[in-house]
TrEMBL record:
<dbReference type="Pfam" id="PF02653">
    <property type="entry name" value="BPD_transp_2"/>
</dbReference>
<feature type="transmembrane region" description="Helical">
    <location>
        <begin position="246"/>
        <end position="266"/>
    </location>
</feature>
<feature type="transmembrane region" description="Helical">
    <location>
        <begin position="71"/>
        <end position="94"/>
    </location>
</feature>
<dbReference type="InterPro" id="IPR001851">
    <property type="entry name" value="ABC_transp_permease"/>
</dbReference>
<dbReference type="GO" id="GO:0022857">
    <property type="term" value="F:transmembrane transporter activity"/>
</dbReference>
<keyword id="KW-1003">Cell membrane</keyword>
<keyword id="KW-0812">Transmembrane</keyword>
<dbReference type="GO" id="GO:0005886">
    <property type="term" value="C:plasma membrane"/>
</dbReference>
<keyword id="KW-1133">Transmembrane helix</keyword>
<feature type="transmembrane region" description="Helical">
    <location>
        <begin position="123"/>
        <end position="146"/>
    </location>
</feature>
<feature type="transmembrane region" description="Helical">
    <location>
        <begin position="300"/>
        <end position="319"/>
    </location>
</feature>
<feature type="transmembrane region" description="Helical">
    <location>
        <begin position="186"/>
        <end position="210"/>
    </location>
</feature>
<feature type="transmembrane region" description="Helical">
    <location>
        <begin position="325"/>
        <end position="346"/>
    </location>
</feature>
<protein>
    <submittedName>
        <fullName>ABC transporter permease</fullName>
    </submittedName>
</protein>
<feature type="transmembrane region" description="Helical">
    <location>
        <begin position="153"/>
        <end position="171"/>
    </location>
</feature>
<keyword id="KW-0472">Membrane</keyword>
<feature type="transmembrane region" description="Helical">
    <location>
        <begin position="278"/>
        <end position="295"/>
    </location>
</feature>
Amino acid sequence: MTDSDSGKGLSLDDVRGAGVEASLRPTTTGARIAHLLQRDGVGATVVLVLVIIFAASTVDGFGSIGNIRNVLISVSFPAIIAIGMTMVIVTGGIDLSLGSVYALAAILCTKVLDVSKGMGGNAIAGIALALGAALLIGLVQGVLIARVGLPPFIVTLAGLYGVRGLVYFVSNNGNDVYSAPQSGAFYQFGTGTVFTIGYPVVLALILYLLAHVTLSRTSFGLTAYALGGSEDASSLMGLKVRSTKIRLYVISAGLAGVAGILAAAYSQSGTPDLGRGFELNAIAAVVIGGTLLTGGAGSLIGTAAGVLLLGVVSSYINLGTDLPQAAQAVVTGAFVIVVVIVQRYLNRVQRR
């Protein structure tokens, strides 16, 4: 079957018709509730609100401005990565390389700044190199997946290891840690605030808004949903199957690069172990937010709720319990299992 990149004569309603969601209108009260909880991250948002209320009422200082600010800053970097992960998973794909791309961007950016300290640090060159490398990685992976036809899991798993190896190569086998100047525009980019809200949080919010509009209001985004519903049907409809896939992997890697640059600006350093497991945390947030790993359904609102939920749980464990840090991984795994079980139950109820 050939890929058509013409896309001519298609309306947004045509594209919506190729998605996997919803063909049956719920008829019973239980089915309507199940349908509501699965829409646009409503279920994840409800759970998030309940967990916040519980944590704030049981842990002193949890609801303080300082702790809220810390939680928002800590989740802003993985939140940006989760945007790209959501967009890829919606098509039925996956990107396991994002944590490594995040680390590479941070290392490249801070290395350029470190090397050029005597000249005041060249932030523009560092950002350009880091972002360019991230976009190139996304392009290569997208071409291998969309044009060559290799499975996304295999391609991005290779990317996870290959890019991480590149991180260690750039950092002299992991022995070098680079630092950026503690002043200037790059420093302000990571540590500045807007009405006491950190720049990383503001940037994450802007990116979520742009990505949400792109996925839900443009033919490009709706084509992504259609691919997750049925790639064959999308191709028969004349949708831009291959080019859409390639662009999504470029966007995904580019967002990981932006997150890495932002993390470097915030911490003013780059280390080779940065971002380990971030891709798995992003997948967990996406699943908790209600996006189907099979593709065709999901929302960035749900992903945002999933990211915040993991951040709130992490903060609760740190402040309100004596559990070790490793307990966060256990809780995250439990959340994912529970969410998948609930999704299956809601799907059954909705069909009644």
